[in-house]
Amino acid sequence: MTEIMMNSLNILAVGILLASLMAMTTPRMGQLIRIFTLQSLMLAGMAALVGYQTGSEHLYIIASIIVLLKVFIIPRFLNYSIERIKVKRELEPLLGIPGSLLLSAAIVVLAYFVTEPVISLTEVITRNCLAISLAVTLIGLLLMITRRKAMTEVIGLLMMENGLFLAVISTSHGMPLIVEMGIFFDVLVAVIIMGMFAFRINETFETSDTSILKRLRY
Amino acid sequence: MMVSLLLCTPLLFALFCALAPSNRWIGRLSLLGLGLVLIQVLDLSYGVIQNGPLDAGMWYIDDISVIFLLLMAVISFLVGIYALSYIGHELHEGVLTPRDSRFYHVFIQLFLFTMLLVLVVDSLGLMWIAIESTTLASAFLVGFYKKEESLEAAWKYIMICSVGIALALMGVTLMYASSLDVFGDSSRALDWSVLKGVAATLDPTLLKLSFIFIIAGYGTKAGLAPMHTWLPDAHSQAPSPVSAMMSALLLNCAMYGIIRFHVITEAAVPGFSSSLLLGFGLVSVAVAALFISITTDLKRMLAYSSIEHMGIVAIALGIGGTWGTVGAVIHIAAHSLTKSMLFLSAGDIVQKYGTRDIASITGVLKSIPWSGRFFTAGCLGIVGLPPFPIFLGEAIIVYAALQSGDFLVAALFLVLLLMVFVAFTYRFVPMLGGDSGLEPSPSPLSRLLPMGILLIMGLALGLVLPGPVLEFLQDVAAQIGGVL
Q: For residue B402, which of B282, B319, B480, B477 has the smallest C-alpha distance?
């Protein structure tokens, strides 16, 4: 692998991680969607580069689906849903920004620690990527837990999935194409259904703050 | 080809139900679809039992999938009969509109399609997609009643399960990475039929990490504590026939996914996945025992009991060996049969009393005599009294634990079972006797028939356990854990 290729893969991987950290610090909904779009774009770039480097042509298809789905369709749908349910622009996190960042840093360290024994075995391309993908996945989960709005939970889930795709692309150069297509289809349908439910929650409770969903206990 | 036809049936009938001219036709078509699925599954299963695994392209059906497929086809058909009368009653009362009824039948077919897909695919990646689709197809059925509580339940269901499933994808990826090391670049590297042959040569570190993600992910969907929080909400808010299907069939699908990964991991790293299953199982039974004793809602109580039984299955798989695995398989079947009957009779109770509050339900045996009797039988069965099949499953599991020398596990298991027994009995006995002041009403035959058949099948399993069935179960056990 050439030096340039190596560097650009690493830069993209780090960029994806940084996007996740930025998502933890942003106080605004619109910005959060833009960060997600940027992250997806970098993920698509990653897929294309790995495809070029390993000669697996189906990764180009994956890259273009990521661009189509996660850079164009889903962000538009999210923006549209936000317009429609008139979410307040502020996110009102349950956990403050410094606390969120501190926890995210802990997650990154943990991810490197857990993947250490695996990393030493596998080939060069996956060195950083597996740890980073694990970190991105767990930070996405943290985002879901610490934010209260229905739509932020959806974005947290999407960011988790970006982390997972990074793992898929870097460790195994993509799964069999039919599996990948199925995963994309599921993601799209899931986001649409979640959007519909978010809309119904907003209609029924007159807010999209999911922390009021506390009727069901025991 | 046969499998594709089987999968197309519910999809086609979903379309038919969506287009059917009148309400009566929707119900008939829906039931016809379920019946056709049942016939095809019987035919397929017979073929597999006679001739060994069916491996055709994307599809792979072996003895393990046959057990789950049979349970699925039989129970969904019986629940389908019941649902006609249940939904009809709600329509009559004006709780539902004809549009809701159409919606219900369309989504039941789609839900069945996704669950069947889980059981017949060969690739573990496609199985992941199918399990995620079961969540998507059933989310609308959980939020069916459009009330505030059902909306909350549906939201929690889809979010928590999607997160869980996302974690499981990480597990699938790691499994794929480990098998690529063996196969090189191969489109079949995720196929179970190929993987099980090379399981022992896969990379142990990757597999361990993979199984942790799998049990966290599919465990969420199977209702293992502490990832179970969506389950009581979803099961209590869904219409009772859907609760029966989720509890008796959907949880099995997730457990099936865990079993597939467990077999491979156990072959490569003996003892790792079984101890994880044992741990999660014991925690689940303990958590369920606690919540059964404090919940005030009838259907939530049954839902917690499902968590308990999934925990017991996990414990049995964790104990392993031939008898542990036979116990697990019998327990899965016993739980599906008993719990679906229990949810159906509970559906009658809830419709009659108009409440799910345990304290305000009394005199069940008097006000709905026949459903009340089935409810009583179900409760006695679910707490594990003989001659009901759950007793058999639990007895075999205890035997397996003693035989493999896990005395601590056996003791802990018995103590937890006793706790559940006391808690559950304390809750259900007061509901049976006394007088509710409600006019006694006979239940229609279309409701009693499915419950009766479920009871008879359960008793046949618990009392008779025909010789060929036991042999078949031992074969399956050899395939799942016989190497141990």
A: B319
Distance (Å, whole) CA A173 – CA A62: 11
State how far residue B7 is from chain A, nearest Cα, in angstroms. Answer: 16
Residue A7: the pLDDT is 85
| Interface residue B113 vs chain A (CB under 8 A) | no
pLDDT digits (tens, 9 = 90+) for A46-98: 999 988 888 888 889 999 999 999 999 999 999 988 888 776 656 667 788 88
pLDDT: is A183 or B280 the higher one? B280
pLDDT value at A130 more than 60: yes
In DSSP terms, B191 is beta-bridged to B123
Please spell the DSSP secondary structure of B404-470, one letter per residue.
TT-HHHHHHHHHHHHHHHHHHHHHHHHHHSS---PPP-PPPHHHHHHHHHHHHHHHIIIII--HHHH
- Interchain contact A171–B (C-beta under 8 A): yes
Q: Which residues of B touch A208 (CB under 8 A)?
A: none
Give yes or no for B152 touching A (CB within 8 A). Answer: yes
Which range (A39-48, A109-118, A136-145, B203-212) has the least confidence? A109-118
Q: What share of chain B is helix, strand, coil (3-state, %, to 5)?
A: 80, 0, 15
Report the residue count for chain B. 484
The pLDDT of residue B390: 96
Nearest CA to CA, how far is A144 from chain B (Å)?
9
Q: Residue B61 is inside which H or E element, if any?
A: strand B59-61
0.85 surpassed by complex ipTM: yes
Q: Which residues of chain B have pLDDT under 50?
A: 483-484
Task: Report the C-alpha gap between B129 and B115 in whole angstroms.
Answer: 11
CB contact under 8 A, B232 and A216: yes
Task: State the Cα–Cα distance between residues A58 and B438, nearest whole angstrom.
Answer: 66
